Amino acid sequence: MGNHLIAPSILAADFGNLKADLEMVNSSEADWFHIDVMDGVFVPNISFGMPVLKEISKHTKKPLDVHLMIVKPQRYIKTFADLGSNILTVHYEACNHLHRTIQEIKNNGMKAGVAINPHTNVDLLSEIISDIDLVCLMSVNPGFGGQSFIEATYKKVSRLKQIITNANSTCKIEIDGGVSDKNAKKLLETGADVLVAGNHVFKSDNPTETIAKLKNL
Ligand code: DX5
Ligand code: ZN
C-alpha cells in the first residue's frame, strides 16, 4: 500500500515497564507514538496526565500524537505543546469553538487534529477540513483499549476521503480503535493514512514484528 503511518497506542503498553515499551517502539518501524489522555468526564475512564507524558517524552524518538479525550481541551493547549506534543487532537464533541481551538493548536507550533466519535457525521468537518492536519476517526467508543472495531467505520472513511479530496486538502485520516490485521488492509484501501493500534501491538507475542506487518501491508 502507499505511505501509511503506524501509531502504536501507549495505553496498551506495560505501565510498570514503560521505558522498555517506548524503546521497542523507537527501534521499530512505527512512525508515531499515540498517547491517549482521558479525564473521566468526556469519557468514562481516566488514563494518565502531564507528569507521565513528561517522562514519556524523555524517552521517545518519534513524533507524539496526543489524543485528548477531555472536556474543554482549550485549557491545556500550551501545556501539551510544552510537554513535547507534535500533533494535538481534540474531540469535535468537546469543543464549542473548534475553529479557535484549532488555530491555537497551530499557533503553539503543533499540527492540529480533530477526533470524532462513532455517532458523529464526517460531513460536520467540511467547514474546517482545510484548517486541520488530521482527522481521527474513532472506530470504537473512546475510553478503553481492546474494544471491537465498528464495521460502519469504512463508510465514514470513504466519505471523509471524498471531502478531503474535494477540498484539495492534505489532511490525514487516522483510524483509532480495534485496529488489527483483520481490518487494516481494508482500511488502507478505503483511504486511511494512519493506523493506531494498541492491544493488537502490545498484547502480541512479538510487538516489533506486529508493527512491521502493519507497516508493510
Ligand atoms: C480509545 C483510545 C485508543 C485505544 C486504542 O479510547 O483512543 O487509542 O488506545 O486501543 P486498541 O487498539 O486496543 O483498540
Ligand atoms: Zn486514541
Give an overview in words:
The chain has 217 residues and is of the alpha/beta class. The chain has a single domain (5-215), classed as TIM Barrel. The protein is 32% helix and 19% strand. It contains eight helices and eight strands, in the order βαβαβαβαββαβαβαα. The chain has an eight-stranded parallel beta sheet with strand order 1-8-7-6-5-4-3-2.
Order of helices and strands: EHEHEHEHEEHEHEHH
CATH class group:
Alpha Beta
Strand content: 15-25%
Query: How far apart are the first and last residues' alpha carbons, in Å?
Result: 6 Å
Number of helices: 8
Looking at the structure, the CATH topology is: TIM Barrel
- List the bound ligands: D-xylitol-5-phosphate, zinc ion
Unreliable stretches (pLDDT < 50, length at least 5) are none
Q: Give the averaged pLDDT, no decimals.
A: 98
Shape: globular
Could you say how many structural domains there are in total? Answer: 1
Question: What order do the strands of the largest sheet run in, or round the barrel if closed?
Answer: 1-8-7-6-5-4-3-2
Biggest sheet character: 8 strands, parallel
| Count of DSSP strands | 8
CATH superfamily: Aldolase class I
Level-2 CATH architecture? Alpha-Beta Barrel
CA radius of gyration is: 16 Å
SS-based class: alpha/beta
How much helix, percentage-wise, in residues? 25-40%
